[in-house]
Write a structure and sequence with these properties.
This protein is mainly alpha-helical. It is built from 19 helices and 4 strands. Helices cover 62% and strands 6% of the residues. The longest helix has 37 residues. The two termini are 24 Å apart.
């Protein structure tokens, strides 16, 4: 929606008046945050997201000085977004924080963060020995370009839109990759887990420990970021095209994992499932990330027809991998089938995690319960490969019965399960990968921005 010059002047006057009121009321410095948006359209979905990103980055900078705002006020109008922060912080220190964002953040050139002293005077960049701000387009002095009208409004608008898309995509991709790695780390640290690597022991595994998993998770950060970028680049194409683009990077990521672990397969399953989910995040608007069903539905759309494409026509004689043999013999489609169905077990696990947290359980203990409920619901191919289909079905039945008796088994019960699984060399590694997805969905739902 376009605004008139009169509306902009009235908005500036109102903001200046409110600044004076708050300075008089608190007698402390203030940061006034607005966006530098050229042209008659001062607000919209992308501009508002850029403003929210600026607020988030500013809050982080304030945390570095342990300087939470004494008072905050926010206005969102068609004339633009405004935020006022009254601070218990020296004006020059506040200015150092704001110029770090204006000069260092990808979107910083669109941030206008004025620092006002208690008497209402502005802290100038020159007082910190800094040069004036640079032009959005040519990089010259911004004031000179503005006075001479060196660039058209259309040019400024185009560059603004470009910056917004670049910065928001960059930030979203970093967030997706960070939380994906965090989810892998939380999964391996969840303790005790039957037959799996955790903080207590290595379960049924003799070639890996918790440090092996940590090294692997760290090595996969670039891959998850790439999966997000592929999802973003293909978001206007059919979902199955995104998955097709993800497969080659996934194979390369397996090499990165093996290099980090000295040849140990820690996260091969997670490379597929977590990579798929990161690709789905790239396809979706940020607001939809907080809705687990929508995220997993996008995964299902990306994986449509995957089982038939990968396993169609297989026979016990032509099957080569463990997954192919299970499908040829029993029709068990493994993680491909889970993905194609929208990870129903993950939705079950996510519900269990939230229910446990609502009861006051720790994230660790709620995660243990989520693992068990998925173990009861999902035919874990790792369990079958290490034992038999009959053993897997027996474990699923017994786990379901255990949960019916006690929906959130305690540590002693879980440790008994761990000893039993380890003694039989059973490891539900596929279900552990699903637990990592549960954690990622929970992290996404908790994200402030």
């Amino acid at each position: 929606m376009e605004v008139t010059l009169m509306e902009m002047l009235e908005a500036r006057e109102r903001r200046a008046g409110r600044q004076r009121e708050l300075l008089e009321r608190f007698g402390k410095p203030m940061i006034s945050f607005t966006m530098n948006i050229a042209g008659p359209v001062k607000n919209g979905p992308e501009i508002a997201r850029g403003f929210d990103l600026g607020k988030e980055l500013l809050h982080r900078q304030l945390m570095t000085r342990r300087a939470g705002p004494v008072y905050t006020e926010e206005i969102r109008e068609k004339t633009g977004n405004e935020a006022l922060y009254v601070l218990d912080l020296e004006p020059m220190a506040a200015k150092e924080l704001t110029v770090a964002l204006e000069d260092g953040a990808t979107l910083g050139r669109l941030f206008d963060m004025d620092v006002l002293r208690p008497d209402g005077s502005k802290v100038d960049r020159g007082e910190l020995g800094l040069e004036p701000r640079r032009c959005l387009i040519c990089g010259g002095p911004a004031q000179v370009c503005a006075r001479s009208r060196a660039h058209t409004v259309a040019q400024l608008q185009a560059r603004t839109a470009e910056l917004l898309e670049e910065a928001l995509s960059e930030y979203d991709g970093e967030t997706a990759a960070r939380l994906a790695c965090q989810a892998l780390l939380y999964e391996v640290c969840t303790t005790p887990k039957p037959g799996l690597v955790d903080r207590d022991n290595s379960g049924s595994h003799r070639d890996m420990d918790i440090f092996t998993f940590q090294a692997s998770a760290a090595a996969l950060w670039p891959y998850f970021a790439r999966c997000f970028r592929i999802g973003r680049e293909t978001r206007r194409e059919p979902p199955t095209m995104t998955l097709a683009r993800l497969r080659a990077p996934g194979r390369l990521a397996e090499g990165d994992m093996l290099r980090a672990t000295g040849g140990v397969n820690t996260h091969k399953g997670a490379i597929f499932s977590m990579g798929l989910l990161c690709g789905a995040l790239g396809r979706l608007e940020r607001a939809r990330w907080k809705r687990p069903r929508e995220v997993l539905a996008e995964c299902a759309a990306m994986a449509r027809g995957l089982v038939e494409r990968d396993f169609g026509g297989l026979t016990p004689e032509t099957a080569r991998t463990a997954g192919e043999r299970l499908y040829a013999r029993y029709g068990i489609s493994g993680v491909r089938g889970e993905a194609q169905a929208g990870f129903p077990a993950v939705l079950t696990g996510f519900g269990k995690l939230e229910a446990g947290l609502a009861r006051g359980l720790s994230l660790n203990d709620a995660g243990c319960a989520a693992l068990l409920v998925m173990l009861a619901a999902n035919p874990d191919t790792n369990v079958i490969a290490r034992s038999s289909l009959e053993t897997q079905k027996k474990i699923a039945r017994e786990t379901a019965a255990l949960l019916e008796k006690d929906p959130f088994p305690g540590e002693a019960v879980l440790k008994d399960l761990d000893r039993a699984f380890t003694a039989e060399n059973i490891s539900p590694g596929g279900t552990a990968d699903l637990l990592a997805l549960v954690y990622l969905l929970w992290f996404l739902k908790q994200e402030a921005y």
